Amino acid sequence: MRTRDARTSFEEFVLARSGSLLRTALLLTGQNRAEAEDLLQLALERAYRHWARVHAAGDPERYVRRILANASADRWRRLARRPEQPLPAGDAGPSTPDLSAEVAERDFLLRALAQLPPRQRAVMVLRYFDDMTEAEIADVLGCSVGTVKSQVARALARLRDATEPRATASRGAGG
After folding, report:
1. Most buried among 30, 46, 68, 82, using CB within 10 Å?
2. Average pLDDT over residues 54-64
3. DSSP state letters, 98-147
């Protein structure tokens, strides 16, 4: 692929897919926009360096998502370990649900997702936000399907534990 054609192809890819890739990066970084933008920039820069080969392989988005997941895991490994902190329990809210309740619930779930360990968060994001199969996730993360399944199970258990006090409070207030 000629340099000019490669650059045009890469620019078209970025224009078409950067929104979706940024969403994935946001989820991988726990909704930290600055870190997500840095992560996406790093992934796109790495993809650009090998664009002719990546584009010829036929699925550049999968390649960039793999870079995102791996770079996110690398970033978390470099950060100093900090102890997990439980999420504060939310109040029951108004008795009549409105749009603000849905926004609060989504925010709560996104914060709970951000509290997951990096590997579990990556598996959850790729599975439930990017609709990838367990086999695709295993391929992207370079692990077995069994590892993906166990990470999903552990992540779902943690999310259930984090949301259980909230669900109990909601049932108690509504009933």
Report:
1. 68
2. 89
3. -HHHHHHHHHHHHHHHHTS-HHHHHHHIIIIIS---HHHHHHHHTS-HHH
